[in-house]
Amino acid sequence: MRYLDLGVILAYLVAITWFGAHFRSGHKSLRDYFLGGRSAPWWAIGLSIISAETSTLTIVGTPGLSFGGNLGFLQVVFGYLLARLVISALLLPHYFRGEMFTAYELMRRRFGERTRKLAALIFLVTRALAEGVRVFAISIVISIVLNTGEIPSILLIVALTLFYTFEGGMTAVIWTDVIQMGLYIFGAIVSFYVLLHHIPGGWAHVAAVAGPAGKFHLFDFDFSFTMQYFSRTYTFWAGILGGCFLTTASHGTDQLIVQRLLSARNEQQSRAALVGSWIVIFIQFALFLLIGIMLFVYYRDAGLEAPAKIDRIYPQFVWQELPTGVAGLVTAAIVAAAMANLSAALNALASTTVMDFLRPVAGQAVANDDHRLLGWARGATIAWAAVLVAIGIMARHWGSVLESGLSIASITLGLLLGIFLLGVLTKRVGQNAASFGVVAGLAVIVYVRAFTPIAWTWWVLIGSLTTFAAGYFASWFQRGSEA
Questions:
Q1: Which residues contact 148 (CB under 8 A, 6 or more apart)?
Q2: How many helices (H) and strands (E) does the chain have?
Q3: Which has the closest alpha carbon to 16: 190, 187, 183, 257?
Q4: φ/ψ (deg, to 5) at 223
Q5: CB-count burial class (<10 Å; 0-12, 13-18, 19+) for 286
Q6: From CA 88, how far away is CA 268, in angstroms rounded?
Q7: Alpha-carbon gap, residue 274 to 85, rounded angstroms
Q8: Domains of the chain by range and CATH?
Q9: What does the buried/exposed string (b/e) look like for 265-274 if buried means 16 or more CB atoms within 10 Å of the residue's CB?
Q10: Which tens digit of pLDDT belongs to each residue from 297-336?
């Protein structure tokens, strides 16, 4: 046991839990608990968006992608920028017309209560499954550090995060995100330079070995309308189009990110937080991909065999090879990313449960009683923590954590985006037609997932276009009263 490293990790866990919990005193209403009182500055919200967007899946999974491949994943990140511009122009103006607590209130205004619940249900299922994968991802790190099983590690990290999320609400989520994002970026930079020091010849040697092996290959501009082409995950057009649709759906319709956007003081600050966050996102992904390439060179030079689960390669190097104290700091940084994302997911799941399902069916007296609704919000937070523990345990058998998380989200996010596009781009489509579009989109994307080799990078595009087209087509057959 490396007691200094364990001490650093323990000190971090205690400090961040205390820091998040102390925000409880500022909560007097649902606006405070779910939107942080709309008082956070744009830069803090931007850093919180980054923290939610990347999380442990990036830290644990991204180095494994370049270790076994190249820099091709960055093509998806270019699509992330295009999506931010689309959201800023298309969706943000609607979100700041009046005060909203969830993204799905927009669907109630446009279509009705049934469509709101349908969209919210899609979010709850998608976010729970994707977040369960992230919970498992951090259990990999904890199990390496403490030499425990993955299940006890899952229980530990969820329990600690639940405590400060339960107490501190969205304010705690945003400000702990700021601290934790800074910590794990710092940890990645430390890892980069320590790993470079471990490789004789430094960066020149990395370039000499990785270059001929194709590790620095970034763009794949080839395009052909063949099934074989669409089965390739990382190409330029898959990245630009697939990444754009994926991020438009995740940042424009997924409550995990939209809740942060709604927490800004106004639309301008929300836009600044969203667009400005991309710069750090790009640097972050590039950094972790380069770490994966350096690990490839390190393992090749030393004649080492890669771990059976490639996701373990970066946390295993951190714990086994970094100097005492530094390993604890970097490991704490990885844990920080997990806790930041998990806290945000718990708050988003709870807000959707209360605002989109429980509050609408409560009596008038309860719906206007913030004290009672705050109790419901905290109860929903606990319930969702238990759900995520169960999914995290199951996710141990789902393969690569990064691609598992992204592919799960890609199955249903297209349906959400399709509904939202019907809502903001059309006037004739009614509630029944929108519901038909969702059913058609789900049927198509399930078929694509189960019976074709099409890569996950195309799924959101396919799902959203199918949902939009089917809903718009169905609107021509709806009754005039709904048109």
A1: 142
A2: 23, 0
A3: 183
A4: -145, 130
A5: middle
A6: 9
A7: 9
A8: 3-396 (1.20.1730.10)
A9: eebebbbbbb
A10: 998 888 887 776 777 788 888 877 778 887 888 777 777 7
The token pair that represents 421 in the structure block: 């596009």
- What mean pLDDT is predicted for residues 139-143? 77
What does the alpha-carbon distance between residue 248 and residue 445 come to, in Å, rounded to a whole number? Answer: 18
Find the angle CA(280)-CA(282)-CA(283) to the nearest 5 degrees: 65
What is the SS3 assignment for 454?
Answer: coil
DSSP of 302-320, one letter per residue? HTPPPPSSGGGHHHHHHHH
Mean pLDDT, residues 56-74: 81
C-alpha–C-alpha distance, residues 415 and 437, integer Å: 8
Structure tokens of 93? 């103006």
Q: What integer pLDDT is reported at residue 226 of this predicted model?
A: 54
Residue 40 DSSP one-character state: S
d(CA 188, CA 337): 11
Q: Which amino acid, residue 480?
A: G
Distant-in-sequence, close-in-space partners of 4: CB < 8 Å, separation ≥ 6: 324, 325, 328
Nearby residues of 53 by Cβ (< 8 Å), 6 or more positions away: 250, 251, 257, 277, 281
Lowest mean pLDDT across 80-89, 268-277, 361-370: 361-370
CA distance 116 to 314: 41
Tokens 């205004």, located at residue: 109
Structure tokens at 356: 């989109």
Alpha carbon distance 142, 144 (integer Å)? 5
pLDDT digits (tens, 9 = 90+) for 262-308: 889 899 999 999 999 999 899 989 999 999 999 999 988 888 877 76
Dihedral in degrees, nearest 10, Cα atoms 433, 439, 440, 442? 140
Map tokens 């270059």 to a residue: 211
- Of 140, 172, 174, 169, whose CA–CA distance to 157 is shortest? 140
The answer to whether the Cα torsion of 353, 355, 357, 358 is positive or negative is: positive
- Tokens 């925000």 correspond to 23
